[in-house]
Amino acid sequence: MGKAATMNYISQGYQDRIEVSLGNISRKPEDKFAIVGIKYIPKSFKCELCGHEPCLYAYSIKNLETDIIIDVGSECVKHFRDKGCNIDVATGLRKRIKSVTRKMRRYMKNTLEEDDYKTLTPEKRRELTVRLFMKHQAIEALKEGTGKKALLDKEDILRVIDDCPEIAPRERKSKQKMTSDEKALKKAEKKLTSFTRDNLTEDEKKAKRRAQDQVRYYKNKVTNHAQNIPMAAATL
């Protein structure tokens, strides 16, 4: 009884978060969305819809009415099935990325000495897998048309490892770096200032409203993050 109640509580908690997040990025319940990208994040990320962490595959979902884009996990992307998103395409993209990362992970493991491989942390292995793939693609692009297949040898891989130093926390008091949400807010505010005249066209009025939606969303997000409190659904 207690276990079932706990599971229902957790499930309801996630559902409430999802509804609040949808309210924050939407203008009305009928808003349509589109999948505009998918990426593999080695260090993992927090789903912007339900708050689950860690997630490795981020689906970028765009509200076609407000132009707001959020990154959601592989489970939460299913919530957009009836809102205009093609989940089959999303699944296919994820399978392609997983296939590539598995291939490069095997390549790295088989090429490195066993002792070298064991010294890598799980986070470093994930990061290295992505960087190896990017480097491998770059080498093949340079060799295109020569008839030679470029391969990475052990020295190449060890050099990439050396290029990925351990990340140590460091305070920068003189120059504070803006977060992605702060950058998005600044961009939206700048766009909004371009619609100050009275005789706006219909397209400009729509663009102004989208900019207002984005300013409202990111300002709410930045403020709540600074106060370390969950976002509350804004009045639409």
List keywords for this structure.
3 domains, mainly alpha, 236 residues, 7 helices, disordered N terminus
Notes on the protein architecture:
- The protein is mainly alpha-helical.
- Helices cover 52% and strands 11% of the residues.
- The chain contains seven helices and three strands; from the N terminus they run αβββαααααα.
- It has helices spanning 2-25, 87-111, 114-118, 122-142, 154-162, 180-192, 202-227, and strands spanning 33-45, 55-63, 69-72.
- Helix 2 (87-111) packs across helix 4 (122-142) and helix 6 (180-192) runs antiparallel to helix 7 (202-227).
- It starts with a helix and ends in a 9-residue tail after the last helix.
User: How many domains?
Assistant: 3
Strand fraction equals 5-15%
Helix-strand pattern:
HEEEHHHHHH
Largest β sheet strand count, sense and barrel closure: 3 strands, antiparallel
The level of helicity is 40-55%
Strand order of the largest sheet: 1-2-3
Number of helices: 7
Q: What's the total count of β strands?
A: 3
Q: Given the C-alpha coordinates, what overall shape results?
A: elongated
Low-confidence stretches are: 1-10, 167-174, 229-236
Mean pLDDT: 76
Question: What layout of secondary structure does this protein have?
Answer:
Blueprint: H1 2-25, E1 33-45, E2 55-63, E3 69-72, H2 87-111, H3 114-118, H4 122-142, H5 154-162, H6 180-192, H7 202-227
Antiparallel strand pairs: 1-2, 2-3
Helix pairs in contact: 2-4, 6-7
